[in-house]
């Protein structure tokens, strides 16, 4: 235990955020807003843009194509932060919290009523999950940040790192594979260069989308046909074999493998194939 | 405008989350909890671990080393989700929100009092920014999720993607540079392989920490000495030159450059150096 070296600090927490079908608000409609919307479209967010200024033609086009939840061209109002919340839903959820605030003396945690759970799920669907301001009006941006903090909404104020719950980075994507490069705000341009000069040349010659699909097929067949079952032991065995078989072939192999070859590999389960199986 | 191709959907929103000096709660203390804590330590979070089970020896060691805010070994209580919130602060912030709920008729958005802003900032510091459950008790995890949704806290339940605001990925790090690889939950093992077999061999021969430091020095000197000023035109000129000079040299060049060479480049501002400046 003497040689425990904790991870070095002063980085970011790199995360793949899930905003599929969740409301996200973008304030402003210029170049930065367009870049934010492009990120959000990749994650299937329900995007609402509020802007009092002129609208980027591509954002307007996105709206015409039905890609935005809404494009509202008028001055921002603080009440926009609860745009899709039915009247009183927030208060009702808060009161729910208050009711269940005390843990039982015996350490048991009481379950919520079905009605209460539904209310929480409804609230989760109607509230904004995040708010991104992309405007030059810092006092307004800051006022939005303040209100969001009270409402429990994550915020990014463009160009104001101190008021950002999260930063964007350079992202390379190929189907389900996504790679984000960040220098923790220190050199966004270098991130872009690393993406362009190092990642793209290395990854564009590979069909990683097929590799992911192939590994998904392998896992699915293993679970449904070759080693089904839900108990902990079986799940553990599957995970172990999956891990080892993924490492058994090269990334390049997985990119070009056919389902017939995967079927052959599966038939050997729980053994591992000989090195020349794919030849 | 006919050829606008929106970004492909069905991915994640890749983000660098900022939890420096913010409270984060980890429920559980096994292998998964340790992995979460390692991610969080990289981002300087104030980590509290609550666990009724046995504690991973490395987590115990981390606590002894003073790396954790707290390690609480007892059954989880719902009130733990407000562990660091002074009594009534949440309610006072909510009431604040209620007071300022209406926008003025003339479209002006009223500023908050200094006292109110302080209260919001205090709340932001004392509330949990995120909660990560790493336990086998799904009903309890789900109950924690429900309460967090009411409290405006982001949540990740290990192994329950449907209840996760975010996923973790494989992360390669070199100083301030961080690269996250994700397949959107489809093949974590492939992410690990891509990191090990593709990214590490390519990046370990480069001193990217120096590249980031060098570009930071260049930017700082440009702003303080060679082209100071705060007006929009000057900032734009600096950004433009910065962008172009970053691209002028290769990533490899920036990794090995000396400050004397950077000073030479800066003296040429706003010109660009000839191709053999570094020779």
Keywords:
alpha/beta, 279 residues, 9 strands, Rossmann fold, homodimer, 10 helices, 3 domains, 45% helix, two-stranded antiparallel ribbon
**What strand line-up does the widest sheet of chain A have?**
4-3-2-5-6
Query: At the fourth CATH level, what is the homologous superfamily of the largest domain in chain A?
Result: NAD(P)-binding Rossmann-like Domain
- Multimeric organization: homodimer
Helix content of chain A: 40-55%
Number of domains of chain A: 3
Number of helices of chain A: 10
The helix/strand series of chain A, from N terminus to C terminus, equals EEHEHEHHEHEEEEHHHHH
Sheet-strand content of chain A, in percent, reads 15-25%
User: What fold name stands as the CATH topology of the largest domain in chain A?
Assistant: Rossmann fold
| Overall form of chain A | globular
Low-confidence stretches of chain A: none
How many β strands of chain A by DSSP? 9
If classified by CATH, what would the architecture of the largest domain in chain A be?
3-Layer(aba) Sandwich
CATH uppermost class of the largest domain in chain A: Alpha Beta
